[in-house]
Amino acid sequence: MNNALQHLQPYPFEKLRALLGGVTPNPAKRPIALSIGEPKHTSPAFVAQALADNLDKMAVYPTTAGIPALREAIVGWCERRFSVPHGWLNAEKHVLPVNGTREALFAFTQTVVNRSDDGLVVSPNPFYQIYEGAAFLAGAKLHYLPCLVEHGFNPDFEAVPADIWQRCQILFLCSPGNPTGALIPVQTLKKLIALADEHDFVIAADECYSELYFDEGTPPAGLLTACAELGRTDFKRCVVFHSLSKRSNLPGLRSGFVAGDAEILKAFLLYRTYHGCAMPVQTQLASIAAWNDEDHVRANRDLYREKFDAVLDILSPVMDVQRPDGSFYLWPNVGGDDAAFCRDLFEAEHVTVVPGSYLSRDVDGANPGAGRVRMALVAPLAECVEAAERIRNFVKAR
Predict the structure, then answer these.
(1) Which domain holds residue 324?
(2) Do residues 225 and 190 make contact, with C-beta atoms less than 8 angstroms apart?
(3) What is the pTM for the complete model shown?
(4) Do 59 and 196 sit in the same domain of this protein?
(5) 300/152 same-domain check
(6) Same domain? 319 vs 288
(7) Cα dihedral sign, 80-256-143-364
């Protein structure tokens, strides 16, 4: 067996099941889950129709690189969304379709990490656990950067020692962050690109929540935006990961893309050819329809705005909680033992949330997620409101 498997920690939801396993929730109340970040809004009907219209393509072997029309649709979306000048992104060289960002983040790490070096993968903390598992299974060590309130829930990149950057092979970014919802400013992204050039590491920007934000007039910048503003036409050392799961409420379609540095994507394509993860042609054609439409994405943001407004009106008077920059999570401070809070809330109110410490790692005796919980506002508005009212009652009684 691969001895690196022993380094993998249980997934947060396994820990949560163990925490709640011996607890009997209030039988008078129906369950409401704010734990798993699975979009619950209705998937676009026109995407489902495109999928149905092309089911005959199940008889066709898909290519790993994907069909040209999908890559062109992705390039067009990147140009419109991140102000990338037309012609900078080459659909043949700078884009690859992937089966969702989870699969891509894992495989990308196996491609980029050089096992012969004493290399590091640098990750935010808290973080999406795939970053950690992918690094361990690629033979790398992890270096965690705490995301604390005093730095706006972003890592303090200025405090990272030069020797860490020198050993870094991949820097994972997540903006808006999971679970914090924090955005990384474009000026910070530019500084990180300069550091990547100086120390020769790759920036892997997980931007799967990029389309969940609050101000329609100011879409958040991404790593491609920083490249465009720097005149970086080769996107050197920069790779972004995007998905239709959150943007278009299509988590079951398993469709996303990776874009950026052509040299890295050439190696990634080689890895993926052996990995055997080509996207079915019918899924690619349905994805084209999704990337080419923004109306359903704006309507999706409207639904989340309504939920955040309603829930924050209920919780803000009784909890230390703020509206995030983006994503669909709240990251409140519960003022103590986060696991006990989640367990007791489940028992009293039949509402499930995730302990922040389960999404983070202890480093030098401190866990940056401790004392916080993650609430995913993915349920329908009425359920989110009911859950918030129950949480308010629980906090008051506590």
Answers:
(1) 8-42+296-397
(2) no
(3) 0.97
(4) yes
(5) no
(6) no
(7) positive
User: Residue 326: CA atoms inside 13 Å, Cβ hemisphere, count?
Assistant: 26
Mean pLDDT, the chain, whole residue set: 97
Measured CA to CA, the distance from residue 340 to residue 214 in angstroms comes to 32
We report the CATH number of the domain holding residue 25 as 3.90.1150.10
Identify whether 179 is preceded by a cis peptide bond (ω within 30 of 0): yes
Residues 214 and 151 in one domain: yes
Asked whether residue 1 is domain-assigned, the answer is no
CB 268 within 8 A of CB 113: no
Q: Is the distance from CB of 205 to CB of 223 less than 8 angstroms? A: yes
- The pLDDT assigned to 118 comes to 84
- Give the CATH number for residue 55: 3.40.640.10
d(CA 114, CA 167): 11
Structure-token pair, residue 361: 């790692």
CA distances to 16, 249, 340, 352 from 241, in Å: 28, 17, 35, 29
Judgement on whether residues 388 and 268 belong to the same structural domain of the protein: no
Assess if residue 218 is contained within a domain: yes
Q: Which residues neighbour 347 within 8 Å (Cβ) at sequence distance 6 or greater?
A: 23, 24, 25, 26
* pLDDT over 80 at 160, yes or no: yes
Last residue of a domain, one of 260, 292, 324: 292
Contacts 24+ apart (CB under 8 A), 372-375: 372/331, 372/332, 372/333, 372/334, 372/338, 373/331, 373/332, 373/334, 373/338, 373/341, 373/342, 374/35, 374/179, 374/329, 374/330, 374/331, 375/34, 375/329, 375/330, 375/331, 375/332
Averaged pLDDT for residues 182-191: 98
Q: Do both 12 and 113 map to the same domain?
A: no
153: left (phi over 0), alpha (psi -120 to 50) or beta: left
- How many angstroms separate the CA atoms of 369 and 352, rounded? 17
**Band of the pLDDT at 192, cuts 50, 70, 90?**
very high
238 shares its domain with 310 = no
Six token digits for residue 115? 């096992």
